[in-house]
Amino acid sequence: MPSQDYEQDTSTRFGPLRIKARGRAVMSNPTTNRGTAFTIEERKALGLIGLVPSQVTNLENQVRRVYEQYTRTSTRLGKYLHLSGVRDRNEVLFYRLLTSNLEEMLPIVYTPTIGEAIERFSHEFSRPRGVFLSIDHPESMADAFRNFGLGPDEVDLVVVTDSEGILGIGDQGIGGIQIAVGKLSVYTAAAGIHPRRAIPVVLDVGTDNLGLLSSEMYLGERHARVRGEKYDEFLDLFVHTVREMFPNAMLHWEDFGTTNAHRMLTKYRDEICTFNDDIQGTAAVVLAAILAAVDVTGLVLDDHKVCVFGAGSAGVGIANLVRDAMLRTGASETEEEAYSRFYAIGINGLYVDDQPELLPFQRPYARRRAEVEHWAVADPNHITLEDVIRNAKPTILIGTSTRGGAFSRHIVEEMASYCARPIIFPLSNPTSRAEATPADLLTWTDGRALVATGSPFGPVDYDGIRYQIAQANNALIFPGLGLGVATCRAERVTEGMIAAAAEALASMVNAYRQGAPLLPTMSDLRMVSATVAVAVAKQAEREGLAREPLTDPIQQIYNRMWQPVYPPVEAI
Ligand SMILES: NC(=O)c1ccc[n+]([C@@H]2O[C@H](COP(=O)([O-])OP(=O)(O)OC[C@H]3O[C@@H](n4cnc5c(N)ncnc54)[C@H](O)[C@@H]3O)[C@@H](O)[C@H]2O)c1
Ligand SMILES: O=C(O)C[C@H](O)C(=O)O
Ligand SMILES: [Mg+2]
């Protein structure tokens, strides 16, 4: 983090690091520290002689050493803590290790291990990272950001959560800071967003998690979650403080609860440059996977009916983007026709228009009671997923319900009985929440299911074919989106930009071969993110929202991507 120890212009990729500190202070700051990789000249200039072992190494050698330590750590949480330790010591080394082993380490610094790190936050706490804002002290908000130390032109991104809907594990109180930290690791590793041009934030509005409230270790405010007017005022103060203090930053919302996620996005999307990852990022990645799968089915989007099981923030976000695609491609002529292709299910069953509990953003997906009256169901007041499958025969089944194992053998076999290539995406995270495993889905459908998941799953061997499982995680979208927005300094994030991101991702897929994944793999994340970034920036410019002209988009995007290498050092 910024300090009195050094100066660096972070707006260019390899700006020299001008170090003011001397001696041990150099090594206790993860930005200035490079351990044994300091050359003899640098050691002399920075007062490090005698403070490091004699051998001068280099970044590759350091990566080998920390990788060896990493592989010796046996638990996933242990690996997470090991990597956090590396990050706290040496920023470049951490990102070099991560980018060189992205596919292997993403499941550690991000989904699914991040879920464990969040749950264990108050127990494993060591060095805090990010900004903690308490609803009990709104007067301290601007101070908190000032203490973080970045100036108005030095921030591209603010990632914020209020922790109410962390992955599929619900209210995690103050521990939610780790999802913001995790998303930022992915922004940097995948899209080269400068690690010091982003701020992770948790809004500590209390928690309804009684386990946390009754734990003596818990580090957040000890009261129930604040809601209503006071919550809205706090959020308003937050949005306006960010806008004033960091006018160029994109505000990324993560893992808010269902009642607030869509509401906040609707409230602020036309006012500031903002994006909700669970709603829009997820929708873009899932649309890309659906388009790839639809191609494989040999049908057109028009021929499909979609069942969204768990139609909350992510589920309705996906439905909205697929609905728009249906309208754009002419699959549906009217909005009403497009809506009629969806069956949305929540905790109380299929959405029907006489259910008072539906939120405004869910209501357009409610079926008319008259329409489902003749269905054969056990309880008309709770029409289950099984009822929907049997009566409506959807061909695409999306799971964003947080309910692990909900796609049972019976349900999947029923779907496979009327549909040659059922498209089934169990998207809930972390792994334990996935609605089904790919191995089960492929076995139950005799290899016919077209599958994508939210958490990473290894390949499945079935009947002599190896099936690569696409990870339909918003990580394929948000880093590129953020990079595109930062490069052209977009004023807003529009639906057009989200659709452009989805199309760019879809264009990178060829899923015709049996067993091929429906999306690019995470090992291609840097290339994917750069491609998404170019598409997003071009779309922003097309919509007149780019404040920075795009003269040479590919070069501009590439120039912007920070690389984990030691920058030239000057002792000042
Ligand atoms: N793959 C991805 O990139 C991605 C992105 C966002 C969210 N997700 C996952 O999707 C899940 C939901 O996230 P969200 O942000 O939309 O949460 P949310 O709370 O807004 O939505 C969950 C919805 O599921 C419904 N639900 C809960 N239990 C159910 C049950 N037993 N039967 C039917 N419906 C049920 C709820 O009523 C709610 O509408 C989480 O597990 C999250 O990890 C995945
Ligand atoms: O964080 C993820 O892995 C994806 C998504 O944002 C989620 O909430 O599950
Ligand atoms: Mg999320």
TrEMBL record:
Domain Malic enzyme N-terminal: 87-269
Example of a GO cellular component annotation carried by this entry: cytosol
Gene3D superfamilies in the record: Malic enzyme, N-terminal domain (3.40.50.10380), NAD(P)-binding Rossmann-like Domain (3.40.50.720)
Sequence positions that bind a divalent metal cation: E254, D255, D278
Active-site residues annotated for this sequence: Y110 (proton donor), K183 (proton acceptor)
Keyword annotations of the record: Metal-binding, NAD, Oxidoreductase, Pyruvate
Molecular-function GO terms, alphabetical: malic enzyme activity; metal ion binding; NAD binding; oxidoreductase activity, acting on the CH-OH group of donors, NAD or NADP as acceptor
Keyword Coiled coil (UniProt): no
Positions of the Malic enzyme NAD-binding domain: 279-541
Cofactor details (free text): Divalent metal cations. Prefers magnesium or manganese.
Annotated positions binding (S)-malate: N429, N473
Residues annotated as signal peptide: none
GO BP terms, alphabetized: malate metabolic process
Cofactors, names only: Mn(2+); Mg(2+)
Protein family: Belongs to the malic enzymes family.
NCBIfam families cross-referenced by the UniProt entry: PRK13529.1
PANTHER family: MALIC ENZYME-RELATED, NAD-DEPENDENT MALIC ENZYME, MITOCHONDRIAL
Protein name: Putative malate oxidoreductase [NAD]
Organism: Nostocoides jenkinsii Ben 74
